[in-house]
DNA sequence: CCTTGCGCCATAGAATCGGC
DNA sequence: GCCGATTCTATGGCGCAAGG
């Protein structure tokens, strides 16, 4: 309905506005031409055009515009054509007036005249240009002639062939004869067919055979498209799971490169209007195959309305710790130090598969922007469930206990050789029944990740200055965790208080994880970005290797077996740690600042914290006990534990985050560029 | 993820020109 | 009247960013 009306009003607009508009356009153009002719100099309209014009004039040594011939016959011809044009114009104007009169009872000329846009045949809004085209059942060009359909073009071509066969090889006027023939034979369809149109159709057929070569040419050769589609089909079939465009993109790029079309990518890289095998393109291919994209579950977490208050309270608590225990301020200057932040990121393994291939990664960063080694939690019971790192005795067994939910958990650390050589970024491997962290893995995390870190840092600091902090084991350190049952488990906290009394726990207020936890959005996102890139590199490389090795496109596979996935994940995670610590450091610091936690080293904040102590900053704390100082350490820890226990478990803390492969909107549009070593490709292709 | 709006590129069509 | 060439306009299709 709406659309119909739009078309209708548009049509009346055409009738009403056309004569004057056309006339105005012509006048404007004449003026422009005259201006150009008068002085091929600094006309505002188009410096470029003027420049080319003057060049032309110099080349032809002719003073007039466009090198018009001075031949008397040419002049006469020009004048004749001018007269004819004027005549045609007059006729056309009359025709428009007639149709205008016919449509006179149609309403709202005012609305119509204001129209500056129209809807093209695909429903897109387009700005009006000088002249307007008409739309009804048949397609018209702006001047009102018919655009011929596929079959009609074929008829024209056939007629042309017939006439050409009838004539002698040297004969001319074939186009005109064809047009005439068709006009007389099929007047309803071809009443307006002209010789130039015939010529266009014939030439186009000779060139391409395509119906309309307009628009961006197909970026890739048809062979490549077929190959990519075959590979997609193969991969999708093998997986039998949900597939998303970001997963297939590296495959497509791999195929393109393997076929030697790297230049297509290189040239278009990052530039507008050029092909760069974007997600859009991949999605287009997927749609072509009839596949559907599945909308992933978004971030549905709700932040409590008073989150700012809650987070501030947390900052104050941290400030109090800082004040009370004189936790070094070197932190503020960027030296690595004490505070820990951690978060479990349920990494939906890289392939976004079913639950079986998930694993949990526990990551942590210090407030100075250093990322600690990860802890991975996978599903399984024995060492064999861990990825094969290629060396015997890769793992050392550390813990084997039943967790608070009754199932057994196993923890390992990589053997010294492995840890020193390639798996530098993962310090703890755990196996649980469901790949979730529990109190046992938390214990392993403390002993295998946190404590070594603190120890190393404290020793480093004391090596430069004994004043900088107290000895390891005395200096109080703070670990910030979110409220999750693994961290509030009473047995675990008791164990912590018993064995590592110098560690303070600080809980992010429930449901405030997105606001109060630096890990949550930013750092995890960066980590996932790195993993995505590594996945992309891997697939890209894999596909290329397979193709070079003679694999047919339809046989391309991306291994998704559990061992491969685990191995990749472990390798990538491990590599991500040093990378985060070098290239992404400033980003991590920014994430910390976003939470306001760094304010804890601010004297004002500390003063406020001390003041608020009376008002229940630590609600479950008996202040008298607390003021006992070091002697009351144990009790303090217990009280803090109790404090945290009041907080109900934060269901959302276990939220795994978006699938790794989904890009965060607006952050990583051209990420795949980094999957490819462009320099090596460049040298390879030139060699 | 999807839609919208816009810019870019390249070509088809229209208008025009010189020439036969 | 027609052809081939040239110039200007119209339009197809995609990349990209913002907003939902």
Automatic annotation (TrEMBL):
Positions with biased composition (Basic and acidic residues): 30-45, 108-122
Region entry Disordered, spans: 30-136
Compositionally biased intervals (Basic residues): 78-93, 123-132
Coiled coil region boundaries: none
Biased composition (Low complexity): 94-105
Composition bias, Polar residues: 52-63
Protein name: DDE-1 domain-containing protein
Organism of this sequence: Emiliania huxleyi (strain CCMP1516)
């Amino acid at each position: 309905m709406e659309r119909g009306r739009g078309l209708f009003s548009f049509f009346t607009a055409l009738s009403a506005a056309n004569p004057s508009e056309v006339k105005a356009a012509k006048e404007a153009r004449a003026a422009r031409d005259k201006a150009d002719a008068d002085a091929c100099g600094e006309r505002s309209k188009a410096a470029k055009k003027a420049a080319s014009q003057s060049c032309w004039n110099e080349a032809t040594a002719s003073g007039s515009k466009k090198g018009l011939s001075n031949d008397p016959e040419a002049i006469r011809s020009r004048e004749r054509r001018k007269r004819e044009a004027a005549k045609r114009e007059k006729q056309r104007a009359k025709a428009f007036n007639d149709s205008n009169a016919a449509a006179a009872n149609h309403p709202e000329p005012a609305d119509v005249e204001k129209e500056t846009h129209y809807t093209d045949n695909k429903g897109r809004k387009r700005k009006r240009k000088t002249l307007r085209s008409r739309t009804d059942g048949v397609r018209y060009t702006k001047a009102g002639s018919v655009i011929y359909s596929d079959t009609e073009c074929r008829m024209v071509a056939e007629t042309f062939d017939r006439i050409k066969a009838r004539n002698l090889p040297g004969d001319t006027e074939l186009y005109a004869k064809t047009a005439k023939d068709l006009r007389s034979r099929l007047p309803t369809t071809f009443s307006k067919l002209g010789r130039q149109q015939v010529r266009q159709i014939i030439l186009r057929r000779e060139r391409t055979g395509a119906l309309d070569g307009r628009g961006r040419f197909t970026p890739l050769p048809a062979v490549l498209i077929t190959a990519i589609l075959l590979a997609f089909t193969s991969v999708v079939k093998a997986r039998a799971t949900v597939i998303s465009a970001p997963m297939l993109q590296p495959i497509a790029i791999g195929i393109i490169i393997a076929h030697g079309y790297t230049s297509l990518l290189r040239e278009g890289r990052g530039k507008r209007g050029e092909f760069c095998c974007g997600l859009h393109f991949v999605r287009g291919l997927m749609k072509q195959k009839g596949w559907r994209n599945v909308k992933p579950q978004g971030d549905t977490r709700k932040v409590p309305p008073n989150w700012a208050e809650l987070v501030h309270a947390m900052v104050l608590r941290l400030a109090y710790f800082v004040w009370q225990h004189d936790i070094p301020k070197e932190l503020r200057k960027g030296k690595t130090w004490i505070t820990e932040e951690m978060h479990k990121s349920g990494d939906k393994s890289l392939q976004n598969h079913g639950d079986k291939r998930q694993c949990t990664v526990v990551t942590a960063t210090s407030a100075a922007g250093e990322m600690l080694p990860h802890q991975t939690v996978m599903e399984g019971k024995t060492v064999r469930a861990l990825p094969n790192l290629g060396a015997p005795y890769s793992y050392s067994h550390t813990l084997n206990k039943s967790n608070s939910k009754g199932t057994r958990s196993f923890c390992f650390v990589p053997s010294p050789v492995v840890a020193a050589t390639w798996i530098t970024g993962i310090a703890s491997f755990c196996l649980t029944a469901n790949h979730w962290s529990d109190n046992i893995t938390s214990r392993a995390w403390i002993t295998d990740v946190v404590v070594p870190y603190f120890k190393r840092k404290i020793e480093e600091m004391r090596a430069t200055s004994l004043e900088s902090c107290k000895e390891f084991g005395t200096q109080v350190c703070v670990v910030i965790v979110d409220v999750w049952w693994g961290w509030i488990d009473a047995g675990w906290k008791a164990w912590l208080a018993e064995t590592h009394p110098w560690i303070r726990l600080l809980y992010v207020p429930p449901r405030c994880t997105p606001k109060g936890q630096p890990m949550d959005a930013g750092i995890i996102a960066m980590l996932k970005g790195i993993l995505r890139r590594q996945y992309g590199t891997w697939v890209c490389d894999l596909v290329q290797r397979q193709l070079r090795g003679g694999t047919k496109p339809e046989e391309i596979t991306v291994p998704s077996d559990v061992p491969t996935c685990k191995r990749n994940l472990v390798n990538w995670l491990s590599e991500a740690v040093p990378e985060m610590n070098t290239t992404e450091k400033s980003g991590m610091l920014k994430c910390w600042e976003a939470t306001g936690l760094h304010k804890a080293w601010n004297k004002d904040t500390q003063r406020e914290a001390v003041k608020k102590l009376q008002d229940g900053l630590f609600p479950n704390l008996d202040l008298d006990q607390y003021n006992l100082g070091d002697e009351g350490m144990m009790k303090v820890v217990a009280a803090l534990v109790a404090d945290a226990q009041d907080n109900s478990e934060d269901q959302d803390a276990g939220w795994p985050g978006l699938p790794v492969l989904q890009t965060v909107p607006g952050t990583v549009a051209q990420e795949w560029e980094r999957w490819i070593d462009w320099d090596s490709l460049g040298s390879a292709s030139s060699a």
